[in-house]
Amino acid sequence: MNILISGGSGFLGSAFSRELMTRYRAQNKELQITWLTRDSSQAHPDDIAMMTYDELAGTDKSFDVILNLAGAGIADSRWSDERKETLLASRVKPTESILAFIARSSAKPKLLVSGSAIGWYGTQGDKPLTESSGFETDFAHKLCDDWEQLALKATQYGVPVAIVRTGIVIHPDGGMLGKLLTPFKMGVGGQLGDGKQIMSWVSREDWVGAAIFIIEKSLADPANTQMTDNNSLKTTNDTPALVYNLTAPNPVANHTFTKALGSWLNRPTFFTLPEFLLKLMFGEMSTLLIDGQKVLPQALQDAGYNFKQPTLKQALEEQN
């Protein structure tokens, strides 16, 4: 397999790359991973190739799969108008570059896997949400939908697309858990608001495993003969376009998450950050902390993926 990854050096892309190399070496399969980057001097493992966006615009290389993960962190800072523009541009520009490459390539990729987030569904409380569910309009939805709709244009060139809507990824190396470790270790961690909001999470190990599963399943079945109405997306052509929720099958309330994290670290969790303070601190972005989403991985489970860490306890204790 020859795979191109935007965002390859990030929290998810780097873990994906390591696991894919480990699996393919164990199976004596050929593999070439290329990270797409804006900085040609970026540090990277010796066995991973690097390609800048300028080089992509002129290359005659071909790739079996493109994994599109580039994008600024949605929860990294307050959503000012400038920050919203940055969040959108950091997703749109890399995707546009990938689409331009696909359009002029004589040997098209067999699959484009493009990132998104469960924010696509908007705020819907504790209502169970699967890939066939509708959405509530807010900034997170619009950001995700604009990104998804752009990626789906790859189907116009005959390239199948898999959209992966990612939940809260659990691993101490980064993401939400990485940011929470310091305050919790100091004994000042606690629940957010009333703690009743549902958190749809996934371990990084299962995120990586699910992404590889989706890729290998698609390559083995290019026509996606097992696609269903539950996770197929509407396009203007017959090229397959699917969506998967990359979340664990057991979402939990924030209160439960807080207690589990405190227990794992052997630290108290007496503190509470009230809703009004979260809104004051984070503005509109506080919706990510206050308003829950109960997003379920129906398409993954229907396709036969078996979660290695289906419970939060396992995700915290079985870190790799």
Would you write up a description of this structure?
It comes from Psychrobacter saeujeotis. Residues 3-220 form the NAD-dependent epimerase/dehydratase domain. This is DUF1731 domain-containing protein. The structure is a single chain. This protein has 320 residues and is of the alpha/beta class. It has one domain (2-170, 200-250, 295-307): Rossmann fold. Helix content is 37%, strand content 18%. The protein has helices at 13-26, 53-56, 81-104, 139-151, 175-185, 204-220, 254-265, 275-282, 287-290, 298-303, 312-317, and strands at residues 2-6, 32-37, 49-52, 65-68, 111-117, 128-129, 161-166, 168-170, 190-192, 198-199, 201-203, 241-246, 252-253, 271-273, 294-295. The strands form five sheets. Strands 3-2-1-4-5-7-12 form a seven-stranded parallel β-sheet, sandwiched between helices. The chain has a two-stranded parallel sheet with strand order 6-15. Strands 8-11 form a two-stranded parallel ribbon. Helix 1 links the parallel strand 1 (2-6) and strand 2. The radius of gyration is 19 Å and the shape is globular.
Tally of separate helices? 11
What is the CATH level 1 assignment? Alpha Beta
Strand order of the largest sheet: 3-2-1-4-5-7-12
Q: Please describe the biggest sheet, giving its number of strands, its sense, and whether it closes into a barrel.
A: 7 strands, parallel
Give the structural class: alpha/beta
Quaternary status: single chain
Helix and strand sequence: EHEEHEHEEHEEHEEEHEEHEHHEHH
**Poorly predicted regions:** none
- State the share of residues found in helices, binned by percent: 25-40%
Looking at the overall shape, the CATH architecture is 3-Layer(aba) Sandwich
How many domain modules? 1
